[in-house]
Write a structure and sequence with these properties.
about 230 residues, mainly alpha, 8 helices, elongated
């Protein structure tokens, strides 16, 4: 349903043709902010993530289930364990470094068992298991499974923007360079975790230049939709 991630070799041209960094998900988020979200917002807003009794809503469980499947399965770029852990870093932070030894242990057990079976059958020993130790899922399916979390994460991030901007402007709508830098840093972290994180785990590009363009595009769409309260 979505186009494959942009190869890193195209990244240097992004400053001349920044639209190359945009994928279908970016255009969907832009349309969501400008039009669709206003129509479907009452059903899919951040406020609907938790029910009145404090329990998670069915929409939240669906988003978490899709994200969990993608997180624990192998993507097309997960043959390299370091890159696989780096992709998951945006969602779990330093805990990703605890996953490394666990993944290495699982790979060691898989290798020993596979070589024992090969020896019992008189076959050539298989290569050592490496990468992310989980069943593989194709990229289109992975990107489809994280769509609910992308929508939920975007809603949470959009709800987070006004309070953060007002916090660092001290409620006065006045911005000096220091507080503006803090605001931008908080927005970057929120975007990386809530909006970009699910897509990166699913298999989107890791190149920071690509995500810079996407972040600017998102903020532009949010500002056009009146969701970025700068100057209020």
């Amino acid at each position: 349903m979505a186009t494959p991630p942009i190869p890193p070799t195209r990244s240097p041209a992004l400053w001349r043709q920044p639209w190359q960094a945009l994928e279908l998900e970016d255009l969907m988020l832009g349309c969501w902010l400008l039009l669709v979200g206003h129509l479907l917002g009452p059903w899919l807003t951040a406020e609907r993530a938790v029910r009145a009794d404090g329990a998670l809503s069915a929409w939240t469980w669906l988003a978490l289930a899709g994200l969990a499947v993608v997180f624990f399965t192998r993507g097309p770029d997960d043959d390299d364990l370091d890159r696989a852990l780096l992709r998951r870093l945006t969602l779990v932070g330093p805990l990703a470094f605890l996953l490394g030894p666990i993944a290495l242990l699982v790979n060691t057990v898989r290798t020993v068992r596979a070589r024992q079976r090969a020896a019992n059958r008189g076959e050539k020993p298989p290569p050592e298991a490496n990468g992310w130790p989980a069943p593989a899922l194709p990229l289109p399916l992975r990107r489809t499974l994280v769509l609910p979390m992308e929508i939920l994460g975007e809603g949470l991030f959009r709800a987070f923007i006004p309070s953060e901007v007002q916090l660092w402007s001290r409620g006065e709508g006045v911005y000096d360079p220091f507080f503006l830098t803090l605001t931008l840093a908080c927005l970057l972290v929120g975007y990386a975790v809530l909006v970009a994180g699910p897509r990166i785990v699913a298999g989107a590009a890791l190149d920071w230049r690509v995500w810079t363009v996407r972040f600017v595009f998102y903020l532009g769409a949010a500002a056009a939709a009146g969701e970025l309260p700068l100057g209020r």
